[in-house]
Design goal:
322 residues; alpha/beta; Rossmann fold; 9-stranded mixed sheet; 9 strands; globular; carboxylic ester hydrolase activity; AB_hydrolase_fold; AXE1_dom; CE7
Length: 322
């Protein structure tokens, strides 16, 4: 088996020191408080689809900065305030994908759960990004506002993800004690962050989480979005005089640091041939998770979505624990 990272016997115990800044918790507590005081301004428009037993809505809610976050909301018709159903909140991967199409989530509805799939702001979907970034950046989203955690692109993204949980928790047809968060790659990192910053998710489903252990990921990964950070240095800081400053910013958004706060039951998948999200970075996140957790490792897979075994295992995990 080709080896792109540490040997497996080292990966399974790989648990590097966290990189949290002293004000990590305060930083997020202030943002969550600010978000809690901002109305969602939720809008739902029912769509006509040839699914007799499922209602499908195009939804919108306001981000913290008033960016209109777009999504699909699918609900089995039998859901009601008398018989509320569990829900999965889904976050998508980085670049080139968006909230998807309703038919992609039918199998979750077949399990008797609702689904909310949202756009990540500015990335390929219909959701814009209203933030104006003062500093220069290279193509992509990794370096927008990267010099300060208060201005970094992912600050608003993480809050958008939490507000998606607000949306489903407020729906009368949803059982707010049975919320799952799910994602692959970028979405996997966002699912961990959502469960770290919000106690409401009951379970977490994540595969090869992106945005984890930035320092090691940048050391190992060239053919991945992390290369945007290298390009930023080439354009704006060739001597890397601001490298420590940038790593400080990234530490507030690191899935490894977030994982240390996750107490929800978690199912995580890792592919050992991944050259985009390093296996060691995924193990770093997994090994820091505090709650009950389950891991599946796929030695011969790279960074590919929709692994059949993982999909089957997720359905069983949901059926058992949600």
């Amino acid at each position: 088996m080709p080896q792109n990272d540490l040997p497996y016997d080292q990966l399974i115990d790989y648990k590097p020191e966290l990189t949290k800044e002293p004000d990590f918790q305060l930083f997020w507590d202030k943002l969550k408080l600010e978000s809690s005081q901002k109305p969602l301004q939720a809008k739902l428009t029912e769509m006509q689809y040839p699914y007799k037993d499922i209602k499908i809505y195009r939804i919108q809610y306001a981000g913290l900065d008033n960016t209109p976050i777009q999504g699909w909301y699918l609900v089995p018709k039998r859901a009601s305030s008398v018989e509320p159903l569990p829900v999965m909140v889904r976050y998508h991967g980085y670049t080139g994908v968006d909230r998807g199409y309703p038919h992609q989530f039918m199998y979750w509805c077949a399990l008797g759960i609702a689904v909310l799939s949202i756009d990540i702001r500015g990335q390929a979907g219909e959701t814009p990004d209203y933030v104006v970034y003062a500093d220069g950046n290279v193509p992509g989203w990794m370096t927008k506002g990267i010099l300060n955690p208060q201005t970094y692109y992912y600050k608003q993204v993480f809050i958008d993800c939490l507000r998606a949980i607000d949306f489903v928790a407020e729906r009368p047809e949803i059982d707010a004690s049975r919320i799952a968060v799910y994602g692959e790659s970028q979405g996997g990192g966002l699912a961990l962050a959502a469960a770290a910053l919000d106690a409401r998710p009951k379970i977490v489903l994540s595969i090869f989480p992106f945005l984890s252990h930035f320092k090691r990921s940048m050391e190992l990964q060239i053919e991945s979005p992390y290369k945007e950070i290298f390009q930023w240095f080439m354009h704006f800081d060739p001597a890397r005089s601001k490298e420590a400053q940038i790593h400080r910013t990234l530490s507030y958004f690191d899935a490894m640091n977030m994982a240390s706060l996750v107490t929800a039951r978690t199912f995580l998948g890792i592919t050992l041939q991944d050259t985009c999200c390093a296996p060691s970075a995924s193990f770093a996140a997994y090994n820091h998770i505090c709650g009950e957790k389950q891991l599946e490792v796929y030695p011969d897979y790279g960074h590919v979505g929709g692994i059949p075994r993982f999909q089957e295992s997720m359905m069983q995990f949901i059926d058992t624990y949600l």
